[in-house]
Amino acid sequence: MAEKGGRTDYHHCLAVMLADRCEGSPVEPEAEKDLSLKKQLLDFVLLLKSRLRPMPELPDGFEELATHNLVTFKSYQEKLDEIALQELVAHYINYRKQMAPPELDMLPAEEVRLFAVCVRFPEALARRVTLTERMAGAYDCDFACLTIRVIVVHRLRLHERNAMLLLLSANEEQVRFGVRHYKQNSPRTSSVVQRLLEKYREEKALMNPVIEEFIRESEEMVKQKVLAKLTPEEMLARLTPEQRLKNLSPEERLKGLSPEERLKGLSPDEVRALLKRLENGSPPEGAQG
């Protein structure tokens, strides 16, 4: 029987037995499937490094932080649903494994808290799970044996501590309050928020079109920064074969190919017709004269 580290490797045994049982059937077992090929990103982590220093003034609902606080965010264009919470729980399990010290398999559960911030109240989710209100705009949701703090921007108080989230609202009164009361804490903060504030101040009406334009511009800016860091090989890997060939001339497409590779895919009749045209001094069809 297979052994691993001096112990019976039951995972491997089960994989072998499944492969044996499914031999010749339409079911194909695949052991140790790598799920990291598609990058999954957690929106934010708030890491509490010390409880001795003064805490920052965070929006309502972020009281009593744990050492590790995992946050998912859904803008007013998105919805917070069960799938979003399932993804957050998956991040929670993965995070606890990755951040555990060498002597532990996982971080202790009490060191990690989960937060889901959404702009619109999650009506559909509220029909499926219980949202227990703790304060205006802040709810506790028991999900998958965990308690997730759900923070709804549209139901937050008009208070200075909430200004950062109110800037992301689709409610005009909240946005205007956020514009008036948001205060930048550090001169090193990115200019992205300042750009949003300037756009709001230029507009004198409801902010939805402004924030939509801002989100598009910000996404494009982030996209360009990400692309700038990619190697040529990584950039090519993001393209389909059709996209790679789109702007290449026929000569560039054929460059480096052997005669056999160039003729691959042609039928004998097509090859003979091509040779006949060349013997007669005529260029191949589609070639430039």
Provide structural commentary.
The chain has about 290 residues and is of the alpha/beta class. Among the domains are: about 110 residues, no CATH class; about 40 residues, no CATH class. The protein contains 12 helices and 8 strands. The strands form 2 sheets. A 6-stranded mixed beta sheet has the order 3-4-5-8-7-6, covered by helices on one side. It has a two-stranded antiparallel ribbon with strand order 1-2. Strand 6 and strand 7 form a beta hairpin. Helix 6 packs antiparallel against helix 7. The longest helix has 22 residues. It is extended, with a radius of gyration of 29 Å. It starts with a strand and ends in a 10-residue tail after the last helix. The model has no long low-confidence stretch (mean pLDDT about 80).
What topology emerges from the helices and strands here?
Blueprint: E1 3-4, E2 7-8, H1 10-22, E3 44-47, E4 68-74, H2 82-98, E5 112-118, H3 123-128, E6 131-135, E7 138-143, E8 146-152, H4 163-166, H5 172-181, H6 192-202, H7 208-229, H8 232-237, H9 241-245, H10 250-254, H11 259-263, H12 268-279
Parallel strand pairs: 4-5, 5-8
Antiparallel strand pairs: 1-2, 3-4, 6-7, 7-8
Helix pairs in contact: 6-7
Largest sheet: 6 strands, mixed
Please give the share of residues in helix: 40-55%
From the N-terminal CA to the C-terminal CA, the straight-line distance is: 71 Å
Lateral arrangement of strands in the main beta sheet: 3-4-5-8-7-6
Q: Strand share of the residues?
A: 5-15%
Unreliably modeled segments: none
> Count the strands?
8
Overall spatial form? extended
Give me the Rg, rounded. Answer: 29 Å
Tally the helices: what do you get? 12
Order of helices and strands: EEHEEHEHEEEHHHHHHHHH
> Helix- and strand-based class?
alpha/beta
Q: Output mean pLDDT.
A: 82
